[in-house]
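Box 3.1. Reading complex inputs
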Amino acid sequence: MSGLFSNLTHFQALTLFSLAVSATFAFLSKRGAVERAKYFAWAFLAFLLVAIGIGWLMYPFSQ
Amino acid sequence: MSEAVKHEQGTGSSALGVTAAVAGWAIPGLGHLLLRQWSKALVYFLCVGGLAWAGLAMRGGVFGGNSSDMFDRLGFFADLGTGVFYFLAHTIQTAGPDVAHASGDYGTRMFATAGMLNLLTVLEAYEIGRGRRA
């Protein structure tokens, strides 16, 4: 089981993190399957897009 | 608010709230399981447990309680939030931490995040047990 997580790429780690946090927040803050699904999708995509956006913003400084 | 929700919010006690909170801290999701919130129990266990396990498998650092540095202490309290995963960290993470690499650093954050998420679920379990929330 440990081997499954030991060689994750940065994006895979980000995706795993986003999935777990979004699902937990959805169940903590919303009631009903539809509301939770909408919130989960919104939070998950926001996590991914913001992280990728910040990554691109920092890209010039890595040169 | 539906009648069923109003009824559920009216029932509960301090003892049930504290029991659910302690159980939820010890094993993520157990507090909600005791309160018969099956779907929440399963999701919290999988998300908190998966994040904690991944953090340890990525060789993230686990903070000890004997540090004098304030950030390390905050990290300790965050890590302690994972309950049983904190106490089993050295069993799960046989190779030890390796925060010199990016994956180990991510692992440290994931484990701490799992602890903070679990503390949020513990607060919710307490509120449900007290009858303040359905």
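In summary: Residues 9-62 of chain A form one domain.
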